[in-house]
Amino acid sequence: MDRIALRGLRATGFHGVLPRERAEGQTFVVDVELGLDTGPAARHDDLARTVDYGVVAEQITALVAGEPCDLVETLAQRIADQCLTHQAVAETTVTVHKPQAPITVPFDDVTITIKRSRA
């Protein structure tokens, strides 16, 4: 399985359980790996035989900026589900970073990573 990776996609979202998170929003960062066979696309030099990662990036940032959810777990699942709508993608690994999470001690980042594949 070949991998296409998108790293550091950023968008402002209003996800979280606290009223302040929903009102003020914060930056979320997303890393995605897409598992697929890129051989047919490479052999034919044909974008239609792979996945357009520019489109995937736009879809991911739209999800982050879109309908709020309480949990980053839910956001990660929404992103994984969207990635798997692309016919060429057989599996995906999604990491959502919440670097401005409301934690009262010093920290660098909060992340969730999920891996999903076609059923």
Which helices and strands occur, and which strands form pairs?
Blueprint: E1 2-13, H1 19-24, E2 26-36, H2 39-44, H3 53-65, H4 72-83, E3 91-97, E4 111-117
Antiparallel strand pairs: 1-2, 2-3, 3-4
Write out key terms for the chains shown.
31% strand; 119 residues; 4 helices; alpha+beta; elongated; single chain; 4 strands
Structure commentary:
The chain is of the alpha+beta class and 119 residues long. It has one domain (2-117): GTP cyclohydrolase I, C-terminal domain/NADPH-dependent 7-cyano-7-deazaguanine reductase, N-terminal domain (GTP Cyclohydrolase I, domain 2, 2-Layer Sandwich), CATH 3.30.1130.10. The chain is 31% helix and 31% strand. The protein has helices spanning 19-24, 39-44, 53-65, 72-83, and strands at 2-13, 26-36, 91-97, 111-117. A 4-stranded antiparallel β-sheet has the order 1-2-3-4. Helix 3 (53-65) runs antiparallel to helix 4. The longest helix is centred in the middle third of the chain and has 13 residues, at 53-65. The mean pLDDT is 97.
Q: Could you give a short description of this structure?
A:
This protein has helices at residues 19-24, 39-44, 53-65, 72-83, and strands at 2-13, 26-36, 91-97, 111-117. The chain is of the alpha+beta class.
